[in-house]
Amino acid sequence: MDSDLLHSPAVGLAEEEEADMNDWKLPLAFMKKRHSEKIEGSKALAQSWRMKDRMKTVSVALVLCLNVGVDPPDVVKTSPCARLECWIDPLSMSPQKALETIGANLQKQYENWQPRARYKQSLDPTVDEVKKLCTSLRRNAKEERVLFHYNGHGVPRPTVNGEIWVFNKNYTQYIPLSIYDLQTWMGSPSIFVYDCSNAGIIVKSFKQFALQREQELEVAAINPSHPLAQMPLPPSMKNCIQLAACEASELLPMNPDLPADLFTSCLTTPIKIALRWFCMQKSAKLVPGVTLDLIEKIPGRLNDRRTPLGELNWIFTAITDTIAWNVLPRDLFQKLFRQDLLVASLFRNFLLAERIMRSYNCTPVSSPRLPPTYMHAMWQAWDLAVDICLSQLPTIIEEGTAFRHSPFFAEQLTAFQVWLTMGVENRNPPEQLPIVLQVLLSQVHRLRALDLLGRFLDLGPWAVSLALSVGIFPYVLKLLQSSARELRPLLVFIWAKILAVDSSCQADLVKDNGHKYFLSVLADNYMPVSIRHRHQGGRILFKYSCWEACLQGNLIANCLEQLSDPHPLLRQWVAICLGRIWQNFDPARWCGVRDSAHEKLYTLLSDPIPEVRCAAVFALGTFVGNSAERTDHSTTIDHNVAMMLAQLINDGSPVVRKELVVALSHLVVQYESNFCTVALQFIEEEKNYSVPSPANTAEPGNLTPVRDSPAIPRLRSVNSYTNIRTATTARNLNKSLQNLNLNEEGGPAAFSPGNLSTSSSASSTLGSPDNDEYILSFETIDKMRRVSSYSSLNSLIGVSFNSVYTQIWRVLLHLAADPFPEVSDLAMKVLNSIAYKATMNARPQRILDSGSLTQSAPASPTSKGTHIHQAGGSPPMPSTSSSSLTNDVPKPPTREQPATRPPYTPTLGGQAPHSHQFTRTRKMFDKGPEQAAEDSDEPGGHRNYISPALQTGLCDWSAKYFAQPVMKIPEEHDLESQVRLERQWRFLRNARVRRQSRSIIQRGISRLDDQIFINRNPGVPSVVKFHPFNTCIAVADKDSICFWDWEKGERLDYFYNGNPRYTRITSMEYLNGHDCSLLLTATDDGALRIWKNFADQKNPEMVTAWQGLSDMLPTTRGQPSISTHKDLCVFVCVFVRQDIPTGADSCVTSLSCDSQRSLIVAGLGDGSVRVFDRRMGPNECRVMTYREHGAWVVKAHLQKETDGHIISVSVNGDVRFFEPRMPESINVLQTVKGLTALDIHPQANLFACGSMNQFIAVYNANGDVISNIKYYDGFMGQRIGAISCLAFHPHWPHLAVGSNDYYMSIYSAEKRLR
């Protein structure tokens, strides 16, 4: 971190202004997504875009009742009148030929929209002919849709009784045909088109008859004896669609310039009628030279988008689709415009019919009914497109000039781009989205359309769902067949977004061999785009289940080549992809073995990005978790992988450690019998040793007093700690079970059969898993921790390469004591599962002949020769004793527990404890098939133990990255966002605090004894910490933290820190104090925890936790120390670990560093003060040692100024000032005896001392006492208790004091300072 980013004492206004500006530049710690959100996938959205019942219109009945030459009696036609039927003048030829020609033309017009349907014409039919036609089509169509087109221009209008008209055989009479009968013959699903006057009557009658049928079906279903039930059940008409030319009271237009079948023309030849209608409008005069005759000569074909006619058809499709999508409800749009190609075409053309026919006072009707669309603004875009096209016609036809393509699509893409860039967050969807769909068909605009589509999908899952509902999926699926390299990054991004929201699309990709596209992208190192898209390609491949095909595409080799890529997201997804491909797929595992995949993944275990390390652990975990039979070679590989994974035991990120537990659980499943043997041996060793309880080792010097329980309130619940029991239960594996044989990198030492650590960490006595507690109890584990020798473990000859299993067992024990509860709970499940299985089902027999073990080649877990016998006696029950450093201090009650708790069931365990036969597997405790029956009554019989499904949610959580916006400007950078405004307010508050406190300190502090706050803390204060800018102060007791508002005198919060009962909080620090504050707590077992959402209305949540120091032994001194460890462990800025040996035999009691974070001053328990320069190597970094103190150093402080001094004080009260360049102290002040606490104000030249003799002395820089505090304020104020802790405010001249009488008070230079 640059020096100008660090706070230094203000010496002038310019520097203070600079400090205020630096608030904006300071980095925020622990604010990544892994800290702020739960590690789980996004909630799946209900997908309605995929049509479950996609249909096809397979049969079409064309019923024409024209009776050419004879007008119906109830319609008086004008003269001249509309005559054209299917663009044929029926009077231009003989009636019969005209009828046949019209029928043929109508069929051709429909075939343009559905060429594969089966067409049947019925020209001037009788009732029987219609019945025969309809029943025949329904029979052949089965469950598919049938279309019934009725033209009634030559018969009377429909009747109010629900009848249409046909003819008798001699054409001498009009015969009514009931719609009820038509429904019966047509069945469902069907679509009906009525082109006749008063067609709305048919729609109403149809609905009435359909309702009548539904009622009949209900009656027949309720009462089987009803006469209706004895008759054939009528078909339901629910899935029927109707299109009618006009309302019930309207006649068809008779304008001679229009065709007589205007409605049919709109439905089947929309471009032709739209152009004719356009020319008939007054606005057409603005396009000179365009006539109706010229329109007939417009060049091109409808299906060729490069021609004028084809382009108009393309634009028309885009516009009508857009209008429907913007106006119709989503479900109705899906049903009418995406379910059936012919229905979609008819309804698109129906929108045109509504526009044209309404201009002639005729309103087309549909069922289901559509909202009015004839005034939609997109029709103006259609008129403009027609205008531009027609204006070119004269020169194209007469002079042969080239056709200029319409700017329609480019303009609509621009409108879509404006929506993306200029719109606000909460707004209506862009109306151009269906047009973007159509543009994908054009090579000219495709690249731009894909780019804009990707930006739209990046807005979030709602945008992806919207695009899928429009129908984007088949288009982008088809584009995967494109070989254009410039489309690759865009298509990969779009597919990553789609699969992140709807993983069901995988099946379609596999079906169309789409995975090959992404394999080629992953292997393309020369793709001219950012590396981002390659990791998206890896993310898409991770979703597949078609691993055989991926293997053939060299996926593993391609992934391994990308492991060293500089982009962390690509490294992460490549590792996840590898983990998924060989998960339960043995051929892929062996392919990875041949390519040394596991060894190449080892490099990622030390990656600086936690997500990458986590992905590598996941990949290695599934690598060893494959369920196939093992050979000696594969067993050796498993052991090597396991010991490499074990090096992450002290990884700083809990997500990595959680994944480590899951990875090791895979190994436990594979080598279950070996781990059962190790577990039993640890249990047996524990029984043979008697170790005194630490509860009896507390020294009289311990200043922690007995709590009086009536003063103890309820603690608040903690979200991330909902499973924390009171300090003695639940996660009862001791923190000191960390006595692993670790090298200085924090991982296990190089392993060999004889390299077993002499320290222990292990198992416990056993109880039934149905008890409320785990099998492994705290007391037993604590006892086993202090067992000095495990030499007899070498007798575990039945487990070849036993050091691997014992080391991994210790790693799991260590993880079971993890400060992060989710990690410890997972490890406890694994341990208890094995312990329960090992003790409840068998007793392994030791093999005495240890000389038979060949340790050079590890044996397969399937080896025979393991001898077992049943040991007598029942398993011991959990101990009920308790042990604690403060055994006589009652623990404050934690959050209320639920009244009932489900019985414990080992959720880990993939194998039932009894197999049906003895096989060469790794299950050595099976009793055999003959005992299966009698075992069925045992409480643990046939229970699953270690579940292969045990997982952390890493993959789904990682996939959630693609479902969220990745191109959006972060809120903190958006000047108008709520987050930005809140930060601005906080930084203004910080500036005010700095300014006001500086003015007070500059005036000089002559006394500091005005008590501005006092209150009784729930526990004895051990550490106090002022928030640097707000009025909050944190007060820690042994294992809980209380927050007070010292200005209002209110208690804000009180919650349990989660540390084991034999440890205590020794230090606290605010992180991001200038902005979004977090609280870091350190305990004397070396664990660090970081909390958020404290001191407000939310529940406190643990952000992260890790073991900063291992091998920690609790100190018995009352002075809270930073650590009691012989080495320094320095966490700088982003908490990068650096181990520095102190070169002393005593513990470190105090730490301080300079503003550059380069020099570190450590006070030690032997009285020495040591200075380290962390820029130098571990062996040369100790640059100075002062040995002038004769007792325990209470505080060692390095002033932040450039020429700052080192100030140190011991329990004897001697305060010494050192110049870092001088070998001896330059000043000595003698303060109070029995000193227990000291703090130095960072701004004012003050320091305060607290004594066990119940007083506080405040000194200035000259060593003069400016205040001496012995009594609390008020009449007859009582004497203050022995001082347990004190701390100055970073800015204000305030001193917080905690004492052993539970009181916490704050003293200031002035009353009501603020």
Describe the structure.
This protein has 1314 residues and is of the alpha+beta class. The strands form ten sheets. Strands 2-1-3-6-7-8 form a six-stranded mixed β-sheet, with helices on both faces. It has a four-stranded antiparallel β-sheet with strand order 11-36-35-34, with no helix packed on it. The chain has a four-stranded antiparallel β-sheet with strand order 12-13-14-15, with no helix packed on it. 35% of the residues lie in helices and 15% in strands. The protein is elongated, with a radius of gyration of 42 Å. It has 38 helices and 36 strands. One of its GO terms (cellular component) is cytoplasm. Pfam families: HEAT (PF02985), Raptor_N (PF14538), WD40 (PF00400). This is Regulatory associated protein of MTOR complex 1. Belongs to the WD repeat RAPTOR family. GO terms for molecular function: protein-macromolecule adaptor activity.
Q: How do the helices and strands line up, and which of them pair or pack?
A:
Layout lengths: L12 H13 L7 H4 L20 E8 L30 H17 L6 E6 L3 H15 L3 E7 L11 E5 L6 E5 H8 L3 E6 L4 H23 L4 H4 L9 E5 L17 H7 L1 H11 L11 H4 L12 H20 L2 H8 L3 H18 L6 E3 L10 H22 L8 H15 L10 H7 L6 H12 L3 H10 L2 H7 L8 H14 L3 H7 L3 H9 L8 H11 L4 H6 L2 H7 L6 H14 L4 H9 L2 H6 L7 H15 L7 H15 L7 H17 L1 H16 L90 H8 L16 H15 L4 H21 L1 E2 L23 E2 L62 H4 L18 H10 L14 H26 L6 E7 L6 E4 L5 E5 L3 E6 L4 E7 L8 E7 L6 E6 L3 E6 L8 E7 L19 E6 L3 E6 L6 E6 L5 E6 L4 E5 L8 E5 L6 E6 L7 E5 L3 E5 L6 E6 L4 E6 L5 E6 L3 E6 L4 E5 L13 E6 L5 E6 L3 E6 L6
Parallel strand pairs: 1-2, 1-3, 3-6, 6-7
Antiparallel strand pairs: 4-5, 7-8, 9-10, 11-36, 12-13, 13-14, 14-15, 16-17, 17-18, 18-19, 20-21, 22-23, 23-24, 24-25, 26-27, 27-28, 28-29, 30-31, 31-32, 32-33, 34-35, 35-36
